[in-house]
């Protein structure tokens, strides 16, 4: 299992889902064997856990429960989907993974880093991404995009529990992700997400193609 697990991270509206879909559409015709998956909804169990996590009526869901639920979804996802795919020598493109727990429940909610590391490592069976693309952009632009996306869904109230968080929360997430990326520069590629979709996609293709020696 080498050099095959690639994660996409960044704040709400940074373009993770847009870019992962486009790069998969680029790689598949080149006969690259891959799967695209996401957290927490990469499994049936994870989708159900996600319904609890994102429900905007769950104001009272405490930070620790939030951390355990994301990690519970990850435990299922790693065992049911990610490891089996890596064992079949597939490339796994994953929309959010453990770094999101450090960013959201650590920097965002204030849970101690060492506690997160313990639970994260256990849930993920110590699996770490080989490459992480961090889509970085100003919070106000990310949130504006997320709002526009929700409006297109014809439900202006569609913002989930996280999108409804205050500006400061999202600022801590952005700074948190950048902090994590500086500690592991060999794993991270920080991508300026405040550009046109196709310009960003060109950089994403280049990064991933180089990484997998396409
Ligand atoms: N580079 C970009 N410029 C402008 N709008 C974008 C860009 N990338 C994505 N979008 C739009 O912004 C919204 C959020 O993008 P999305 O990929 O869902 O972000 P994420 O998955 O990171 O939350 C979508 O409506 C998408 O079409
Ligand atoms: Mg998304």
Number of strands: 5
Give the tally of structural domains: 1
Structural class from helices and strands? alpha/beta
Instruction: Report the biggest beta sheet as strand number plus sense, adding barrel if it closes.
Output: 5 strands, parallel
User: Number of DSSP helices?
Assistant: 8
The CATH architecture comes to 3-Layer(aba) Sandwich
What fraction of residues sit in β-strands? 5-15%
The gyration radius over C-alpha positions equals 16 Å
The poorly predicted ranges are: none
Q: Give the CA-CA distance, first to last residue.
A: 17 Å
Shape label? globular
Q: Give, in order, the helices and strands.
A: EHEHHEHHEHHEH
List keywords for this structure.
Rossmann fold; 214 residues; 54% helix; 5-stranded parallel beta sheet; binds adenosine-5'-diphosphate
